[in-house]
Design brief:
alpha/beta; 247 residues
Length: 247
C-alpha cells in the first residue's frame, strides 16, 4: 500500500474558511495518488481513560496525542507511509510539495512576534504536519513520551505541551528531520500579508530556508482573539490566487 493522509476536526466545522483548507489537502493527496482519510470525534476513541480525564478541558493536548494513535494505526494497516495535516493547513503550491524520503519528518515553525522595533523570529518545529514511514523508530518513542508527560504533569497544561513544545525540545537535542516546505504563519505575518506590510513578513522569509508550499494558518489564534475568521478567509483568498506573496 502507498501513503495515507489523515485529517480530523469536529463536526460541524467552526468557520467558513476550513473547507478550502481541507479541499487543498484532499486535492493534493489525490494528485499524489495517496489515500485520504477524514476522521471525526472517533479520533479520540483509542485514548486511555485516564488521559481523557486529564485532558477533558485541554482538547488540543488530547488531539495532539490522538493523532499519533491514528498514524500508528495507518502503519499497522500496511500503508508504507502516513501523513498528518491539521485541518487549518492550506496547500498553496501542490506541485512543489513532495514528501521527503526520511523515515519520519516534522513541520517547520518560524514564529515572528514582538513590537515593531524589536521583532523576533523563534525557529522551532511543529506537529501540524507529521510524516512516518514503515520501520521508523520515532513514532513509538514520541507516543510513549507524550503519554508519560501527560500523566506526570502537575497543574494546568499549556495547549502546546506535547506538540511544538515537546517536539522542539526533542529536536534541539537529537536534530529531527524537518520538512521545511510546511510552515506556520504567526498573526504578525498574516497581517503583513493582508496589509502589504513588510517587517514581520521579511523576517519570516529570511529565517525560512525555503519558500513554503503549505502553511498552517493557526486557527487557534481566532479562538484567543489574535486573528479573526474574516482575516483568515481573506488570507486564503490571497494565498490561493497569489502564492508568490510568500516569496
Amino acid at each position: 500500500m502507498s501513503t495515507l493522509v489523515i485529517q480530523s476536526h469536529r463536526d460541524p466545522l467552526p468557520a467558513h474558511w476550513y473547507p478550502p483548507c481541507l479541499d487543498s489537502v484532499r486535492s493534493w493527496a489525490a494528485e499524489q495518488k495517496f489515500t485520504y482519510r477524514f476522521i471525526g470525534d472517533e479520533l479520540f476513541d483509542p485514548l486511555p481513560d485516564d488521559i481523557l480525564q486529564r485532558t477533558v478541558d485541554r482538547t488540543v493536548v488530547a488531539t495532539d496525542l490522538a493523532r499519533l494513535y491514528a498514524l500508528r494505526e495507518g502503519l499497522r494497516e500496511g500503508f508504507a507511509a502516513v501523513v498528518w495535516c491539521d485541518a487549518d493547513v492550506l496547500i498553496i503550491r501542490p506541485d512543489r510539495l513532495k514528501l521527503p524520503d526520511d523515515a519520519y519528518a516534522l513541520g517547520r515553525e518560524v514564529w515572528v512576534q514582538g513590537p515593531p522595533d524589536d521583532l523576533r523570529a523563534y525557529v522551532k518545529v511543529h506537529n501540524a504536519f507529521l510524516l512516518f514511514r514503515q520501520g521508523n523508530s520515532f513514532l513509538e518513542f514520541y507516543l510513549d513520551t507524550a503519554l508519560k508527560l501527560i500523566r506526570a504533569h502537575q497543574g494546568p497544561m499549556v495547549p502546546q505541551l506535547i506538540g511544538p513544545k515537546l517536539l522542539t525540545a526533542i529536536h534541539n537535542v537529537i536534530g529531527c528531520p524537518v520538512f521545511e516546505s510546511f510552515a506556520v504563519l504567526s498573526p504578525l505575518v498574516v497581517r503583513d500579508l493582508l496589509s502589504g506590510g513588510a517587517s514581520a513578513l521579511k523576517l519570516f522569509q529570511r529565517r525560512n530556508s525555503v519558500t513554503p508550499a503549505a502553511v498552517n494558518l493557526c486557527g487557534s489564534m481566532v479562538a484567543n482573539g489574535e486573528l479573526t475568521d474574516e482575516e483568515i478567509g481573506a488570507l486564503i483568498d490571497l494565498l490561493s490566487s497569489r502564492p508568490s506573496v510568500l516569496g
